[in-house]
Write a structure and sequence with these properties.
Layout (H helix, E strand, L loop, with lengths): L14 E2 L8 E3 L21 E9 L10 E4 L2 H5 L10 H5 L33 H8 L2 H11 L3 H4 L4 E13 L2 E6 H10 L3 H13 L26 H7 L3 E4 L14 E4 L3 E9 L9 E7 L2 E8 L6 E9 L5 E10 L3 E2 L3 E7 L31 E12 L2 E4 L2 E5 L4 E5 L2 E4 L2 E21 L17 E11 L23
Parallel strand pairs: 8-15
Antiparallel strand pairs: 1-2, 2-7, 3-4, 3-5, 5-6, 5-7, 9-12, 9-14, 10-11, 10-13, 13-15, 16-21, 17-20, 18-19, 21-22
Helix pairs in contact: 6-7, 6-8
């Protein structure tokens, strides 16, 4: 049996692709906008981009190949001094840590030049050209050769391509290569310094150059703004990714109409994103969540112009299965990502396996492989704060004192604080580790180590720990699937 736990659901933007010759089907969209000027130590040039390609399992999203970085800019990639290896978004979603490296950066120049991936300057990314490129049979044949998987096998339906945009930048004088996910993780690692110097690129044009149109492989389609900066948490979970599929699933999968799915009798957090203008403690934003005849109010929300703020509330789900409608309102001259949220409350105790009888047989049974489902064991995000930076200025007010001929001037002025609000971010993270241990029942007379005769029970123990520097719940639910049913249907 295998224990699966999820802290957050994460998804990126790309579409399923079908080649004209039957080669593939793309799941990709993009956005972006204008960029700011750089400095001699911190800059990026339009066209200095690439794409990381990784082959993943079509059902589980498990990584099945090396990751290959493609770029047209040979000179831009040859002088890279710092990179973060060849981790894919799937690796980071599974808990891989960001690890800088100064080893040689390995890349490939494709025979068929890449289209523009990241908009900037005179370079404008065209999503139709990107989709067409990565569904072109000759391009996919080249990828097949580079990852070492036969072309017919690659497009047979067992695999998908995960695409991630790459930017080659000069940061503090050091040539650096990063995917969108790595840029967000690096911003957290540098305490916001990377985003402060590359925000329009690192938090807008780069992550919004690829995102999913439809949910896939445990990743969620992006429905937020496509022309504004995204938060680190949104980038890490939802942006900077596209998926190419080569064969539609044989069975239609029913998609739930709810926005979120929660368990019964469980502490949960529901979040929205607030955007619009600059908001200081003088004009803060207030968000209210209306849930089951209760109002959860979040006050004093601040953020600089052109940015956004993640806002959340904690509540406890009902004891029975039902649909909960959540209404969200915002005051203070801002807008919220969702005003109406549908939460589907489900009961985990409704799918127990059938009770076996003494003469049950299954002569066709074969031991299945343990599934490796996409799961999220860590998350990181940041919250905007504001502090007042005083700047005292003397305001003169001269008055004449005394007679017209025998008097003098007196300055009856006053000190005035002409300071301003300074924005900064606090970084937060939460992570989980879990383990499941199965042993023969302690009263089983046939037990010999981990072997026993049929008809007896087992003992199962789950241990877990959750840590972080922000609000989080403790472990509340554990689910066990059974090999007798191929880890499906019953738990």
């Amino acid at each position: 049996m295998r224990f699966f736990a999820v802290i957050f659901a994460a998804i990126f933007c790309f579409n399923t692709v079908a080649f004209a010759s039957g080669t593939g089907d793309p799941n990709i969209d993009n956005g972006g906008g204008g960029l700011q000027n750089g400095s001699s130590e911190n800059f990026w040039y339009g066209g200095d981009d690439g794409v990381r390609v990784t082959v993943v399992d079509a059902k589980t999203g498990e990584v099945k190949s090396i990751s290959v970085d493609y770029t047209n800019e040979k000179t831009g990639a040859e002088d890279i001094q710092v990179h973060f290896g060849k981790n894919s978004k799937a690796d980071y979603s599974a808990g891989a840590a960001l690890s800088p490296s100064n080893s040689e950066y390995v890349f490939r120049i494709p025979e068929q030049p890449l289209p523009t991936i990241i908009s900037g300057g005179t370079y404008v990314a065209d999503i139709d050209k990107i989709r067409s490129y990565f569904t072109d049979e000759q391009v996919v044949r080249g990828i097949s050769n580079h990852v070492g998987i036969e072309f017919d096998k690659l497009i047979g339906g067992d695999y998908k391509l995960m695409l991630e945009p790459i930017a080659y930048v000069t940061y503090n004088g050091v040539r650096t290569a990063l995917t969108a996910t790595e840029a967000a993780l690096y911003d957290l690692k540098t305490g916001g310094d990377f985003g402060a110097k590359f925000g329009p690129l690192s938090h807008k044009n780069l992550p919004l150059s690829m995102f999913l149109e439809d949910d896939d492989l445990g990743y969620t389609a992006w429905t937020g703004a496509t022309d504004a900066k995204a938060t680190n948490s949104d980038i890490i979970s939802d942006l900077g990714v596209g998926i190419i599929s080569f064969k539609e699933p044989e069975e239609e999968v029913e998609v739930a109409s709810s926005d979120y799915e929660y368990r019964v009798d469980t502490d949960v957090y529901t979040s929205v994103t607030v955007t619009g203008g600059e908001h200081t403690p003088n004009n803060p934003v207030t968000v209210r969540f209306y849930i089951k005849n209760k109002v959860y109010t979040v006050n004093n929300i601040v953020f600089p112009d052109g940015n956004s703020q993640l806002v959340w509330c904690k509540w406890h789900t009902p004891n029975t299965e039902q649909t909960v409608k959540i209404r969200v309102t915002v005051t203070g001259g801002a807008s919220v990502s969702k005003t109406n949220i549908t939460a589907n409350i489900v009961d985990l105790n409704k799918n127990p396996p059938p009770d076996p009888t003494a003469d049950d047989r299954n002569d066709s049974f074969r031991t299945p492989s343990v599934p490796n489902k996409p799961q999220r064991t860590s998350s990181a995000w940041s919250v905007w704060r504001a502090r007042w930076i005083p700047h005292w200025v003397w305001i003169s007010d001269w008055d004449w004192v005394g007679d017209d001929d025998d008097g003098h001037w007196v300055d009856n002025g006053y000190w005035e604080d002409q300071g301003e609000w300074e924005f900064y971010t606090n970084s937060y993270s939460v992570s989980m580790s879990a383990n499941m241990r199965i042993t023969c029942d302690e009263k089983n007379p046939t037990a010999n180590g981990r072997t026993m005769k049929s008809g007896y029970g087992i003992n199962e123990q789950v241990t877990a720990s959750i840590s972080g520097n922000s609000e989080h719940t403790e472990l509340q639910n554990a689910v066990a699937y059974f090999p007798e049913f191929y880890y499906q249907t019953y738990w």
